[in-house]
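Progress report, Aim 2. The chain analyzed during this reporting quarter is listed below.
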Amino acid sequence: MDKSSMAKWVLIVWTSSLLSLGTVAPGKERPESVQEYQKWAAGERARLQQNDPDLPRIHYIPPRGFLGDPNGLIHHQGKYHLFYQHNPKWPKAGPAHWGHAVSEDLLHWQDWPIALAPSPKGPDKDGCYSGCAVIDTDGTPTLIYTGISPQVQCLATSKDWIVWQKYERNPILANPGIGEPLLGWRDPYVWREGDEWRMTISSGITDKGGAVLLYRAKDLRGPWSFMHPLFVCREWLIDSPYHPNFECVSFVPLGPKWLLVASAEHHQRAYWFLGDYREGRFYPETSGALDGNLHKYPATFYAPQVFRDTQGRVLMFGWLRESRSRPDLGYTGAMSLPRLLTLRSDGRLGMAPAPELQKLRDRHWHVESQTITNAGMTDTLKDIRGKCLEILAEIVPQDAPRIELHVLLDRNHRNKDEKQRQQTTIAVHGFPIREIQIQRGQASRSPHVAAGDVVHRFERLRDEKSLRLHVFVDYSIVEAFVNGRCCVTARVYPANDEAVGIDLRAVGGQAIVRSLDVWTLRPIWPPHREKSTR
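Predicted structure tokens for the chain:
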């Protein structure tokens, strides 16, 4: 969690009934069961669907309140657990909690009671901030997280994943152990290595930059001892900018290499590093940004966490921030779609949507190979409509320096001036690819919505001759995967019943569309599912 967000959390007094289970549904007494909490959450989502025309249908959102950083991502005994930074009282001020959702398929999520809430006299009295989940050597589910004011590391365990008992001797680690001034010290990430536990803590060393500090212990409860910095940013400036302070670090093996993901607090943007891990130190070889936004902050996608599931896959979720002001709706924030991370043959990070998302596909349109120009494919695509779509396009650019995919397009606008149409434009520049933009200037008619472009710039690859755009449109969210190299995300808020069309065009030349497939997507929230359009 970044400092700007931290400043908004203030201490409030919680009842003993909240502490006994760790959750209170706003305006209600403590739920008697998970089922009662889920019934309440379903009612809240039904209300949101009635009141918010831009409500996402395939992304996880909180039933009410603030959703922030993904925390404690873990796959255990057939269930994916998604914890997240949460303020159930939002838009009222309140300290950080851990919300909790559970899924068996990475798609359909069940809301479980809030896992962690501040203890009024505990080391987390001002908030339960980001951290991780692990299974202890005796099989006990364990959460490790940061308490603030001051920043310390805490632990909680559970027998059933519902009721979480905080360790009576918290904090488990209160002293950074490094004799240098730090800018931050939070967001623990823990794994088992040999016969001991290792833990990274996100930090920044004054005048040296973003740092990942490494600790070790025989037992999760400690004592933990500081080893040395795993990685310091200033020592790695080959193809990555200088970052004063890191937060929300993840560190996992990926093929023969190790992947380090860090969020740069001052950039408010997430970055990846790939390299070797030897003798407790990380030696990066390649790096890059995980998502937009170039030179404009904050980014939509931030504070991601990476984890390995029981299939051995490395998956990632990130926090999608709102770019509108609607506190009247009673919720804010969404979780990204699950992203599958791989090691590419060029030694860089590969990224694709998790294949489970294909199970949401409903009505299908397929377009055969054809040449396109600046005139686009208006007639060919005129019958394709939807605000919740998956679009997969394979394109050979030929001499076109720019390819544009328009989504959430209002085809019925009476004004023939293209600039007056409501639309979101995904523009890819240059081949080999140089840059992708999600242009939001015409995406919404609301004056309370941010309209700046989201931009991601690529390292150009000589052998990149074609374009594979894999785009998910979910009402107010657009996630565009490009050539298996990255995903760029934007919030767009069309709030227009006519903004349902798509178009594809080549600008400044011609291109060949090898194939174009579009599916409508079924929403993930029972029992309020929309009927199939087949």
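The CA atoms of residues 55 and 374 lie 32 Å apart. DSSP finds three helices and 34 strands in the chain. These observations will guide the mutagenesis work planned for the next reporting period.
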